[in-house]
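Thread: quick sanity check before group meeting

JM: Hey all, I'm pulling together slides for Thursday and realized we never actually wrote out the predicted structure for the chain we discussed last week. Dropping the sequence here so it's in one place. If anyone has concerns about the input, flag it before I start.
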Amino acid sequence: MGDVICINEYKRRHGIAMPRSPYYTLNATQEQLSCAYRTAVLKMKQHKNPPYAVLIGYENIKTGHIKLLKQIRMYSSQEAFESMSGIGGFRCVAVVKV
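JM (edit): ok, ran it. Output follows.
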């Protein structure tokens, strides 16, 4: 067997384009989803004026697969958060008003 190398390092060395996806994973496990929820709750509790919602990802309505964001997004108002819920075929996965 050859050396094990990071796929991103391999792509970089060989000039293969790497997608700049905003997602941490495209099919989150229950454990990953639970971890993202806990992180979102902690982030909300750290603020003096907690945001209305913390978006952690999207669920594909057809497949049920959950895409978790690399960086969670905070929304100060219900209106700002609801503007994100109109993405076709996806449902927001979020913590709202902890």
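AS: nice. The first strand starts at residue 23 and ends at 25. The mean pLDDT is 82.
JM: adding both to the slides.
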